[in-house]
Design brief:
heterodimer, A: TIM Barrel, eight-stranded mixed β-sheet, 15 helices, B: 110 residues, mainly alpha, AhpD-like, 0% strand
Chain lengths: 349, 110
Amino acid sequence: MKSLKATGHQLADSAFQLTVLSREQAATAHLPRFHQKLAGAGLLPLRPVAPAVLQLNVGKMCNQVCKHCHVDAGPDRKEIMTRETMQLCLDALAQTDIPTVDLTGGAPEMNPDFRWLVAELSKLGRKILVRCNLTIIVANKKYHDLPEFFRQHGVEVVSSLPFYSADKTDRQRGDGVFADSIRALRLLNAVGYGQPGSGLVLNLVYNPAGAFMPGPQAGLERQFKQALSKDFGIVFNSLYAITNLPVSRFLDYLIESGNYAGYMEKLVTAFNPAAAAGVMCRDTLSVSWDGGLYDCDFNQMLDLPVASPGSRHIRDFDAATLAQRAIVVNEHCYGCTAGAGSSCGGTVA
Amino acid sequence: MATYYDPADLKKFGNIGEFQKEFADKFFAYYGAVFAEGALTAREKSLIALAVAHAVQCAYCIDAYTTDTLEKGCTEPEMMEAVHVAAAIRGGSTLVHGVQMMNKAKELSM
C-alpha cells in the first residue's frame, strides 16, 4: 500500500480536504459549522492557555501504512526534520518552561537524528514522550535496542494498538502488525516498561477500526488489560481512547466506504462543550518536520498554520506572541469535541 | 420513497417527548440508568441489548446496538454469538411448546 501522495490522490492535497470538509458536499450541508458550535458554547475565539506540550513531528517516514493515518505516512514519504531544525526546537524550548516534549511522526525513530534529539532533550530535563508504533522496534536489527534506549532516557512510550486481537489490528494497520506489536510490547515489558513500580510508563492508544466512535475509555482499558495479560502476559499503564479525525487517509476511508456523512453527523451531534473547553490545542504547540508552527498535528496536516504572523516558524518562536493568538479551527475539530472528547492523551471530559 | 422503517427515524427517537414529555423524560432517564455500569458492565449490557434487538427484530435497535457494541470494543465473534443466543432461545421457545403439543396429542389419542 502506498501513501495518498505517492498515488497522486486528490486527498493528498490539503486544500481539497478542506473543500470536502467545508460542507460543499450536499450530504453534510445541513450540519452547523464548527465555529458556530464553539460560539454557542462561548468559546469563540478559542484561546490558548500556558503551553504544556511541545509536539515535534520529526517526519512523515514510517515503516507502516495504516488505513486511518492522518499524516499519510509511509515508507515512501521522505519529509524528515533536519538536525538544524531540531536545534531550533531545542533553542525555543530552552527559552520556555514547557514541561513536556511529545515526539511523533511517521515513525519518529526512523529519523537519523532521533537519538541525538532525545539525548539533547534529556539534558534540558523535560519529560519526553515518544509515539512509537511498536513494529519499528522489531522491523530492523538497528532498532532492537530501542526499549533499552528509551529506558536510559526515561522516555514515556505511547503506542498505538487498535485492538487486542490480530484481526481488527491488522485490518487497520496491515498484515502481521499485531504479531509484531506483541513482540515489541514483550521487549518493552522486559526492560521494565509498564511494570508496576518501575517508573517506566507504557501507555497504549486505542482508536476504532472503522466509522464509529470509541466507547468509554475506562471500560476499554479494563478489557485491553485483561486480554493482553491473559493471552500474552503483557502489562501496560493506561489506555488512551482516541477518536479518528476526518483527515487524510481516514477521510479517504470514510468517503470510499460511504460513511462520511453519517460519521460527520455523529461527531456533530455528539458535540460536548466540556470537551471543547478542554481540547489539547489550548495547551499544545505542534512543530512540523520543516519547522512550521501549528495548533495541533491535525492542523499541521491540513496546512493550517498558527494565526500568529510574527511567529509561524520555530526559528521565530515567541511565546508572548503565540499566547495572544486565536486557535485555528475547522470542521475536522468536531473529532476532538465529540462525546468524552479526544486528544493525543485520550479523553478530555 | 415512503417506508415503515426509515434509518433516519432512529435519530428522531429523542423527539418522542414532543407528544408526551413526562413519560418520555422518565423513560430516557430509566434507559440511561439501565445501561450504565452496574453489576453488569456497560459492555455486557450492550451485548444483551444486541441479542434482544434480534429477538424482537427491531431494525432500529439492531443498527443502534451493532454500533454500540463496536464502540464498547466487542469483537465480531462476540456479537454473532450474542445473536445465536437470541436465535437459540427463540428456536428453543418454539420447540419446547412441542411438549404441549405432545401432551395434547396423547390426551386426545387412543
